[in-house]
């Protein structure tokens, strides 16, 4: 089976229950943001900027658990900020497991190995020596760290830890191969750390997924290579979504300046071009999401946004209307469902009800539409069933050539960050007056320019501009 049976059954039962009850709107995935603090400052990340005044705030543990219970989504994606910074992350995960949720811990990967060492210390007995030896052989832990695990005392044994279970996935943010990913997260070495964390997780028995956002400048061939490499590491599944700059005001600004909007963000047409091969990818790799959503991304059909099915809860409450846009926060999920004028959002039959939605095709708006049968077409149920219950694609064969293609940045001495900065500050770039935007330039609704984004779904313009400058300057030199 492509996805574990128990998880598929849980999600299918949830949909059937609500269909039988004729519940008009219900949650499928809760995007839980217990905090917005992050150890990275990725280019274009909206979360750390939109919530810059509340970065130190956290949702208390009990409130997080109450929010999950209230909306009753079978899946909870714990994101942020970086959720592994949340001081009670272990209690949060364990509390959600007790509620019977399927959990995705969306992380930039930098603290995963530390959390897994805590787990190994908590369970240490000589029986796990072969596992430690494997980790040591792969240089995934040091001798010193292995010794700390072996010497774990009562406190370490009693500590709440994140244990492997079929109900939880690490969901690691990977936006490309080494050069691109490190560039986007603005720190060299992050891709390498993600890979090491993934390898360690697999040895320790965790399930691992990855999430990737495709930007205007994303090279599709690189995404395929990335899937091959991640698949060779035996990653259990991948989420992929188009990045989207929904900022209508920015679009106006662009049109007033007489520029082609296509120079600045991913339009629907461009998304469809980028995702033209998504169905092939879905056959070759374990892509999460429904085949119906894949057809939508490939431009083969229309879907209507069902943002209410993937609600976001954070320090300010229930964020409406969606993960990307913020028109308000509500104290309760049911209150949000009742008060938000949902009929004013999304795109129906190709027409945007709200100009900000015009080019949006992101998974948090449209993936549930495929599962819930919105815009149902004959054969959809069978298609979804066949995809879920079909054979899981085999891991892509690992090879030194593939690994070499993956580590195309800092590892081979191509420190992109220094290179990127040099290029951006080069006379060639300044002379061209390439797209330059300063932090704090106004975006929509008078906010700073980065609004409503996170690992995986974000304001694309700044990242695109950075990648474009580098590519253009390289061409010009
Ligand atoms: S995109 Fe994710 S990892 Fe990057 S700064 Fe934002 S929250 Fe942190
Ligand atoms: S179409 Fe996109 S931007 Fe608009 S409400 Fe839906 S998810 Fe949000």
Describe the structure.
It is a single chain. By secondary structure, the chain is of the alpha/beta class. The chain folds into two domains: 385 residues, Alpha-Beta Barrel (TIM Barrel), CATH 3.20.20; 60 residues, no CATH class. Helix content is 43%, strand content 11%. The chain contains 22 helices and eleven strands. It has a nine-stranded mixed sheet with strand order 6-5-4-3-2-1-7-8-9. Strands 10-11 form a two-stranded antiparallel ribbon. A hairpin with a 4-residue loop joins β8 and β9. The radius of gyration is 22 Å and the shape is globular. The N and C termini lie far apart (50 Å). 45% of the residues are buried. About 6% of the residues have low confidence.
Search tags:
22 helices, alpha/beta, binds iron/sulfur cluster, TIM Barrel, 477 residues, 2 domains, two-stranded antiparallel sheet, globular
Q: Can you give me a brief rundown of this structure?
A:
Helices cover 43% and strands 11% of the residues. It has 477 residues and is an alpha/beta fold. It folds into 2 domains: 5-389, Aldolase class I (TIM Barrel, Alpha-Beta Barrel), CATH 3.20.20.70; 417-476, no CATH class.
The CATH superfamily name of the largest domain is Aldolase class I
What is the helix content?
A: 40-55%
Helix/sheet category: alpha/beta
Tell me the strand percentage band. Answer: 5-15%
CATH architecture of the largest domain: Alpha-Beta Barrel
Work out the count of structural domains. 2
The CATH topology of the largest domain is given as TIM Barrel
| C-alpha Rg (nearest Å) | 22 Å
**Tally of strands:** 11
SS summary, helix count: 22
Separation, N- and C-terminal Cα atoms? 50 Å
**What would the principal axes of the Cα set say about the shape?**
globular
């Amino acid at each position: 089976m492509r996805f574990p049976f128990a998880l598929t059954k849980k999600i299918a039962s949830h949909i059937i229950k609500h269909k039988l009850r004729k519940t008009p709107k219900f949650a499928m995935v809760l995007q839980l943001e217990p905090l917005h603090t992050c150890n990275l400052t990725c280019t274009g990340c909206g979360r750390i900027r939109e919530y810059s005044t509340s970065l130190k705030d956290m949702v208390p543990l009990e409130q997080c658990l109450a929010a999950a219970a209230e909306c009753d989504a079978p899946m909870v994606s714990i994101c942020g900020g970086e959720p592994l910074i949340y001081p009670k992350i272990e209690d949060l995960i364990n509390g959600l497991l007790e509620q019977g949720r399927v959990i995705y811990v969306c992380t930039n990967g930098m603290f995963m190995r530390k959390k897994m060492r805590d787990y190994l210390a908590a369970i240490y007995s000589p029986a796990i020596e072969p596992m430690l030896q494997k980790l040591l052989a792969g240089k995934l832990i040091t001798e010193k760290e292995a010794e700390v695990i072996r010497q774990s005392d009562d406190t370490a044994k009693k500590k709440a830890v994140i244990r492997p279970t079929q109900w939880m996935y690490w969901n690691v943010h990977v936006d490309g191969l080494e050069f691109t990913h490190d560039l986007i997260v603005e720190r060299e070495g992050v891709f390498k750390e993600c890979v090491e964390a993934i390898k360690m997780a697999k040895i320790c028995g965790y399930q691992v997924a990855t999430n990737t956002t495709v930007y205007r400048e994303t090279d599709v061939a690189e995404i395929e290579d990335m899937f091959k490499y991640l698949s060779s590491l035996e990653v259990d599944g991948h989420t992929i979504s188009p990045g989207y700059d929904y900022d209508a005001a920015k679009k106006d600004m662009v049109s007033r300046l007489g520029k082609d909007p296509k120079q600045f963000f991913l339009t629907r047409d461009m998304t469809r071009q980028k995702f033209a091969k998504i169905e092939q990818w879905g056959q070759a790799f374990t892509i999460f999401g429904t085949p119906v959503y894949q057809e939508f991304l490939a431009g083969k059909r229309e879907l209507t946004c069902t943002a209410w099915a993937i609600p976001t809860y954070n320090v300010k409450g229930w964020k409406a209307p969606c993960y990307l846009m913020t028109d308000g926060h509500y104290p309760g999920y049911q209150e949000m469902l009742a008060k938000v004028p949902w009929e004013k959002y999304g795109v129906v039959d190709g027409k945007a009800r709200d100009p900000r939605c015009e080019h949006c095709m992101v998974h948090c708006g449209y993936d549930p539409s495929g599962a819930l049968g919105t815009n149902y077409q004959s054969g959809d149920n069978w298609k979804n069933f066949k995809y879920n219950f079909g054979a899981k694609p085999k891991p892509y064969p690992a090879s030194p050539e593939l690994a070499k293609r993956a580590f195309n940045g800092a590892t081979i001495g191509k420190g992109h960050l220094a290179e990127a900065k040099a290029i951006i500050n080069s006379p060639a770039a300044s002379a061209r007056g390439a797209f330059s935007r300063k932090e704090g330039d106004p975006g929509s609704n008078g906010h700073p320019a980065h609004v409503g984004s996170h690992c995986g779904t974000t304001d694309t313009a700044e990242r695109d501009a950075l990648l474009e400058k580098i590519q253009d300057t390289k061409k010009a030199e």
